[in-house]
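Why should sequence recovery work at all? Because a backbone constrains its sequence more than one might expect. Tight turns favour small or flexible residues, buried strands favour hydrophobic ones, and helices have their own preferences. The token representation captures these environments compactly. In the example below, the structure is given first.
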């Protein structure tokens, strides 16, 4: 029999959960949440949080948020939403993602000429979840939450899960359990869903969809294939998988990163001369550059200088500060510890009009003790 490790506990860093957890055989636990700090009054929908243990010893404890459909939960689809990163909290999906866009007029002055442009602005307060942050300057108090009338939860029940392990409020009880990989993440996502359905048998017949964005584009098709194969093998409970959806999904890092050079040229972000120099010296490979190819490296650096002032998520918008460390052109990263966040100077934080501003509100909100208590995040305890 495999022996349990006595290594220190490994805790997630996204929201700085500075606590230890009791050594108990948690399998699945859940609790309905009627009130959330920052929201005025009781929640007008069913909201649940909890943990599901996965892995051989269930030493991976995955935290989730569940919102029951506000329409017809008995028949509406059930969506398992996987956030990207990898390592972005499920709160990103609950509060910020799958939002709408609008066009805002912007006046730009160049020399003595006036230019009227239409800038795409993300209404980042829109989301798939039924609530979002009130868009207002942070005043040191707990950010306010308001209802979202356009929530996907009007027509679907959605599970937002902190995956992979160490993301958000998910944690590992051993050093070995803290390890993750794409294949392991897929295994744990499917195991999570099957165990969740066992605890929520009323949803076993609902059509199931797996959705997500960004790096979850790696996990979602794999999870869908795994479920389909296991259904054919008769593994219980059978998951009534109807399909999957991926937004802006990662598929092949080399192809995607190499395409940025061509995209930048076609959008007139770099000159014809630099583009031709890149093509000639790099031979179309700008991601895994040969270290001995000094000419290619020089031109790639020139490219990064030319595009360094852009908000890469939306090149028509003014540059916005990332709440997480700003991703490099060739190695994006989206998660960040609270210590790192607090090291940011006030003037470098996202401004009110930036799509990333509400992520800053999430950081303040999720690190509040009253919030973690309301969400039933596991608290400090002594190991036996």
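From this structural description, the recovered sequence reads:
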């Amino acid at each position: 029999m495999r022996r349990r490790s006595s290594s220190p506990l490994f805790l997630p860093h996204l929201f700085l959960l500075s606590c230890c957890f009791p050594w108990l055989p948690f399998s699945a636990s859940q609790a309905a949440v009627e009130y959330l700090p920052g929201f005025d009054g009781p929640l007008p929908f069913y909201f649940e949080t909890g943990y599901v243990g996965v892995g051989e010893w269930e030493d991976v404890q995955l935290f989730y948020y569940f919102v029951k459909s506000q329409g017809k939960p008995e028949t509406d689809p059930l969506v398992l939403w996987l956030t990207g990163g990898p390592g972005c909290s499920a709160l990103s999906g609950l509060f910020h993602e799958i939002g709408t866009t609008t066009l805002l007029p912007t006046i730009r002055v160049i020399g003595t000429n006036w230019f009227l442009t239409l800038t795409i602005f993300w209404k980042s307060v829109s989301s798939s979840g039924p609530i979002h942050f009130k868009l207002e300057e942070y005043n040191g108090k707990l950010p306010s939450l308001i209802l979202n009338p356009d929530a996907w939860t009007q027509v679907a029940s959605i599970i937002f899960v902190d995956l992979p392990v160490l993301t958000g409020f998910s944690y590992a009880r051993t050093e070995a359990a803290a390890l993750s990989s794409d294949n392991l993440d897929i295994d744990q996502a499917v195991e999570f869903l099957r165990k969740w359905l066992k605890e929520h048998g009323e949803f076993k017949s609902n059509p199931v969809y797996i959705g997500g964005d960004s790096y979850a584009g790696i996990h979602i098709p794999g999870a869908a294939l795994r479920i389909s194969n296991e259904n054919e093998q008769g593994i219980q409970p059978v998951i009534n998988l109807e399909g999957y959806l991926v937004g802006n999904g990662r598929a092949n890092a080399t192809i995607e990163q190499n395409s940025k050079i061509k995209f930048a040229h076609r959008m007139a972000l770099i000159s014809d001369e630099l583009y031709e120099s890149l093509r000639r010296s790099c031979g179309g490979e700008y991601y895994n550059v040969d270290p001995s190819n000094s000419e290619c490296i020089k031109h790639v650096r020139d490219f990064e200088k030319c595009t360094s002032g852009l908000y890469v998520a939306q090149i028509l918008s003014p540059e916005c500060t990332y709440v997480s460390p700003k991703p490099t052109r060739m190695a994006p990263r989206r998660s960040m510890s609270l210590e790192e966040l607090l090291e940011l100077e006030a003037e470098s934080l996202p401004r009110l009009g930036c799509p990333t501003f509400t992520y800053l509100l999430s950081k303040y909100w999720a690190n509040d003790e009253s919030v973690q208590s309301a969400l039933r995040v596991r608290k400090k305890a002594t190991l036996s």
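A few observations help interpret the result. The chain has nine helices and twelve strands.
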